[in-house]
Amino acid sequence: MPDRTGRYPEQDEGWTLSSAPGPEDWDNWVEFDAGTWPRKVERRYSLVPTICFNCESGCGLLAYVDQSNGKIRRFEGNPVHPGSRGRTCAKGPATINQVNDEERILYPMKRVGERGSGDWVRVSWDDALDDIAARMRAAIVEDRDDEIMYHVGRPGHDGTMDRVIQAWGIDAHNSHTNICSAGARLGYALWHQADRPSPDHERAKFILLISAHLESGHYFNPHAQRIIDAKSGGTQIAVLDPRLSNTASMADHWLPTWPGTEAAVLLAIANVIIDEGLHDRDFVRRWVNWEEYLSAEHPQAHERAQRLGGSAAGSDGIDVFFEVIQTLYKEFTPQFAAAESGVPEETIIEVARAVGGARGGLSTHVWRSAASGNLGGWQVARCLEWLVVLTGSVAT
């Protein structure tokens, strides 16, 4: 491409393309200040690796610290970060706005007026921590521990706080996550106590997304990269979303479900997979607590499964479980799901067979949207993860 004068450089002038400075240059990176063009003014930077904290993804950033005054001038992607690989969405570079925000709180503040008055004074960290600890201790000693609650914004330090406060027998945690993604987390955690699964999208055989908009950094940038890599390699993608987002427009299958009907479609997909024998029978036999389920909910079926060998390798006990599931799912036919969701029955069947055909290699995602802020949102995530389990795509 031409330079600023419109002249094309010759090949022997040594021009090379680079995405970002390598670690060997981070201590003393020199570049011209674009703001002083056409004058050539050198700026020397120390590049400090850090993390973007504008979503749970935690993409790697480089802070460009001006050596002349020690101030951060900008943020760019860290090229050696294993997750984000030097790429960020718009939220990464926008971190500079938070650093320089006039209302950024840089030290502890204590309210001195009535609640809502806006009267605050600066206090030291020691004073703040001593005051908080004394109040908490008094509540515990006086058997008022149910009056203690701690709230965090972006939960980057929950582990430390949880260990300390829960060690005192206090369940007091709250964060923005309880609103924005708790539904999906509950649905996932009911399966395997992991509330944020991280699929291997890049090596997936089929990808099923619910209301995930890769072009807007959601789902998270590292996963978006790998979903695009898989798509480029031939992996098919299906998107359940009422909105024809850019992601949905590039998918192989778009299922514009009516809001609230996602679970019905997912159960219909599971129904087709089981009816057509596309499920991973042995994986479910080995890793799902189906025996406990039958014992609690269907004792006669449990007894029959035990007579057939239970979960022992080579036994037919697991088939009793699938007979029960088929009976339970009898109403969730593709025809029923089509009537509920507005998605054509043929499309649901086609996607179901693609999901079943991806045995051992299905990757999925739902985070907020369909699973957030509504009464049945957790069921969406639960049903979605059931497809992952049903196809034996956990830890594969």
Automatic annotation (TrEMBL):
SMART domains, per the entry: Molybdop_Fe4S4 (SM00926)
Transmembrane segments annotated in the record for this chain: none
One GO biological process term: anaerobic respiration
Ranges of compositional bias, category Basic and acidic residues: 1-10
Residue span of region Disordered: 1-22
Cofactor(s) listed: [4Fe-4S] cluster
Record's keyword annotation contains Iron-sulfur: yes
Family note: Belongs to the prokaryotic molybdopterin-containing oxidoreductase family.
UniProt name for this protein: 4Fe-4S Mo/W bis-MGD-type domain-containing protein
